[in-house]
Amino acid sequence: MLAEIITIGDEILIGQIVDTNSAFISKELNKIGVQVYQITSIQDDKEHILQALKDAKDHADLVLVTGGLGPTKDDITKHTFCEFFGDTLVQDSETLQNIKDIFLKYLQRDPLPANLEQAMVPSSAIILKNAHGTAPGMWMKKDKTVFVSMPGVPYEMKYMLTNEVLPRVIREFNRPHIYHKTLLTYGMGESSIAKRIEQFENDLPGDIKLAYLPSLGRVRLRLSAKGTDREKIRNRVNEHMSVLYDLLTDIAVGYEEETTIQERISAILERKGYSLSLAESCTGGAIAHEITTIPGASKYFKGSITPYETQQKINILGVPAELVEKHSVVSAQVAEAMANCCRKLFNSDIAVATTGIAGPTKGDGQAEVGTVFIGIATPKGTRVEEYKFGKPRERVIAKTTNKVFELLLKEISKN
Amino acid sequence: MLAEIITIGDEILIGQIVDTNSAFISKELNKIGVQVYQITSIQDDKEHILQALKDAKDHADLVLVTGGLGPTKDDITKHTFCEFFGDTLVQDSETLQNIKDIFLKYLQRDPLPANLEQAMVPSSAIILKNAHGTAPGMWMKKDKTVFVSMPGVPYEMKYMLTNEVLPRVIREFNRPHIYHKTLLTYGMGESSIAKRIEQFENDLPGDIKLAYLPSLGRVRLRLSAKGTDREKIRNRVNEHMSVLYDLLTDIAVGYEEETTIQERISAILERKGYSLSLAESCTGGAIAHEITTIPGASKYFKGSITPYETQQKINILGVPAELVEKHSVVSAQVAEAMANCCRKLFNSDIAVATTGIAGPTKGDGQAEVGTVFIGIATPKGTRVEEYKFGKPRERVIAKTTNKVFELLLKEISKN
User: Fold this and answer.
1) Which of A59, B137, B140, B412 has its Cα between 20 and 30 A from that of A159?
2) Interface contacts (A, B; CB < 8 Å)
3) Please, is B41 exposed, middle or buried when counting C-beta atoms within 10 Å of its C-beta (0-12, 13-18, 19+)?
């Protein structure tokens, strides 16, 4: 079966926000065997919405729409759905109660008329409860196509999709199984990988698809298959993946299935009982932020310091001033000292330090923009790696962050 | 004139990556008066790409396509363009040289045949140079519609769009001016705002559009207009915006035009010569990361500490153990002490501290999930605010981060 996602909102089309809803919905649909045929972002405009609904009906069994359900005048999805389905609005008592409850609980006041108007819904719609907001979702059918309308606020949409929409899709549609497995590789470009696995790629059977996903400093290789027998397609993908892995052992760092590299690091640290601390200069908190976003980080993460000013590396972290003087603040020696001092300061098993020039400008007598040193201190010793990450600033920060996760995973995966 | 953006890649439709290219392109087009009619994300599939190109031709003057230009077999955009335009591939000597140069400079080796194949381009295409990668862009025309193909790698695309595509669009198309102005408000819901400004909204002339953009703890209000006279539409929007501002002075924190709240904070700190440090517990580095992403942060940002483990708040930051013992680590007293200790430790003018329970679980005897204290220490004294940010984890972190920027902006904007 095929699905289409339609996200409504002028703010998407003028680039004021990035549409993250579509990726979330696609991922969740994929897990239950629903293939997304197309994602379309359109304006808060009645004619445009009607056209998009009509087009989607031609090629999708399921159309998921987000946005345009707010209490203000620029939100017109509900009225447009009414027109598309030739329906009229009626009051839904459960939704009305939900709105009153939410106002009482979170805002300690009565809803305004505009909020109460959100309880008016198309008479033929099945109402989907919004546990975290006042706009209800709608499930409606036209001929053989199901149309679902959800709020655009990511937090409200996610809850509604997970708890209301997906269980209903599972019940009402026959779906094949889709299985993806993704191998993470670091340190080799996609064309070199393609050359090395050319024979493998040529020999792949038609029902197994290979995709290359290059990003800063790493390439992900995804094998996918679709079929009715869940076990069979899993086995077929896994079989071919293990051949692929063998061809790339020197650059592979593991699989990414449901878990990210950060989650894998988190799981290993917790299992082995290792504690971690960070001294982030050029990454400025980016690594700590990613680590602490994972629930349970407090079990192994002791903390971090961003000694942005050179003096703070000396005062707080304890890097010897002579070392900074002699080698400059962006140097292998200072990265090594930062990692060692950080490990001691936080009393952690492992410490990672970054120092580099993110740019756009470099200080006097410093290394060129994009130069980064990463130090990793463990009970067994301290190693330092040097990189040239080019430009611009965000890219240097992102590449350094990715590289730290790569080095850290390799380090903690050792026996 | 109208534009359509088509992003190609299975990885988008299975939710493996979030499409950030579209937002960037939309924003840039908007600045030069090009309205984006629709954004469509489709699979790496020839028939689907052909259909999307055909559909886009019906309603757009300019179609910008990203993705599918890599050197591997799953990249089929170029061949599909050839089919759509009835064209054949020829070798472009400048592109060939660019590929060789890039390999020599960044990889210190010769390109592979698959890389050299990237120099084959449709014979009627105007070639757009890729300064940061091997895949060239293409500019082609069919009847009255211009089709542009760019790489999907955000970094390569951004450079090509800015340096090759936009200047050409400006030269070749007549465009109206589009002007948006966005007011940032904090602390009031969109329906309450709508009620307060009901009369204003009803009185708005038809050519000025108002949009509400609610997100965690804040609502942005955007006024937009389009026209041929640049000064006139700016003045009209500014006139209405000043009326709107007067209606919302108690919750408005300023305008967001080209700049984000982080950039505004950055500019004020630099202008006033204030230095800043952070002690981030529950936000775990998120605030430092956002601040250090802005170029020039080293001029005012002394550094930060994430004392994730309670003991580190005592050992490194210097919060008295008795205070933690008496009030618990998530308390107004500890937030205050963290801010004061941080200010002292980093010797900064201003220090901000966060402590809270991001969840999903809470420690023994601690406050409920979502409780957050924010402390701000300045030469004039220290204030602490308490918030209940609910769930889930990422939302608590994001809401706290937004709130810190709001408080900080207000604090440093005082005389």
Assistant:
1) A59
2) 312
3) buried
Letter for the amino acid at A308?
Y
- Is A287 an interface residue toward B (CB < 8 Å)? yes
Q: Does the distance separating the beta carbons of A37 and B15 come in below 8 Å?
A: no
Going residue by residue through chain B, which has 415 residues, state the pLDDT in tens, using 9 for 90 and above.
899 999 999 889 988 889 999 999 999 998 888 999 999 999 989 999 999 999 999 989 999 999 999 887 778 999 999 999 999 999 999 999 999 988 887 777 788 888 899 999 999 999 999 988 899 999 999 999 999 999 998 989 999 999 999 999 999 998 888 888 999 888 788 888 999 999 999 999 988 989 888 877 789 899 999 888 889 999 999 999 999 999 998 888 788 765 678 888 999 999 999 999 999 999 999 999 999 988 889 999 999 999 999 999 999 999 999 999 999 999 999 999 999 999 999 999 999 999 999 888 876 667 888 999 999 999 999 999 999 888 888 889 998 998 999 899 989 988 6
Mark yes or no for CB contact A192/B112 under 8 Å. Answer: yes
Strands A120-122 and A89-91: antiparallel
Cα distance from N-terminal residue to C-terminal residue, chain A: 46
Residue of chain B whose alpha carbon sits nearest to that of A282: B292
Nearest-CA neighbor of A151 among A129, A120, A180, A184? A129
- What residue of B is the nearest CA neighbor of A278? B306
- Alpha carbon dihedral B37, B42, B48, B51, in 10-degree steps, equals 0
Select from A196, A203, A304, A347 the residue whose CB has the most chain B CBs within 10 Å, as the one to mutate to test that interface: A304
The alpha carbons of chain A give a radius of gyration, in whole angstroms, of: 26
Rounded Cα gap, residues A52 and A64, in angstroms = 12
Question: How many other C-beta atoms are found inside a 10 Å radius of the C-beta of residue B301?
Answer: 24
Question: What is the C-alpha to C-alpha distance for residues B2 and B55, in angstroms, rounded to an integer?
Answer: 13
Q: Which tokens in the block code for residue A224?
A: 């996918």
Measured distance CA(B142)–CA(B125) in Å, rounded: 11
Give me A310's structure tokens: 């050179």
DSSP-derived 3-state class of residue A263 = helix
Name residue B222's amino acid. R
Q: Does B45 touch chain A (CB under 8 A)?
A: no
Instruction: List CB contacts of A26: < 8 A, sequence separation 6 or more.
Output: A5, A36, A39, B12, B13, B14, B15
| Chain B touched by A110 (CB under 8 Å) | no
Q: How many CA atoms lie within 13 A of A179 on its CB side?
A: 19
Of B18, B37, B390, which is closest to A20 when you measure between CB atoms?
A: B18
Q: Strand, coil or helix: what is A224?
A: strand
pLDDT digit string, tens, across residues A305-327: 999 999 999 999 999 999 999 99
Which domains are assigned to chain B? 2-172 (3.40.980.10), 177-256 (3.30.70.2860), 261-413 (3.90.950.20)
pLDDT at B365: 62
pLDDT of A178 higher than 90: no
**What is the interface pTM, i.e. ipTM, of the complex?**
0.76
Among A171-185, A275-289, A379-393, B203-217, the range with the most confident prediction by mean pLDDT is A275-289
Instruction: Give yes or no for B318 touching A (CB within 8 A).
Output: no
For B224-287, what is the HEC assignment?
EEEECCHHHHHHHHHHHHHHHHHHCCCCEEEEECCCCHHHHHHHHHHHHCCCEEEEECCCCCHH
Partner-chain residue, chosen from A40, A106, A303, that has the shortest CB–CB distance to B38: A40
Other C-beta atoms lying within 10 Å of the C-beta of residue A364: 5
- What whole-number distance in Å separates Cα of residue B122 and Cα of residue B106? 27
Of B14, B21, B18, B20, the C-alpha closest to B44 is B14
- Identity of the amino acid at A309: E
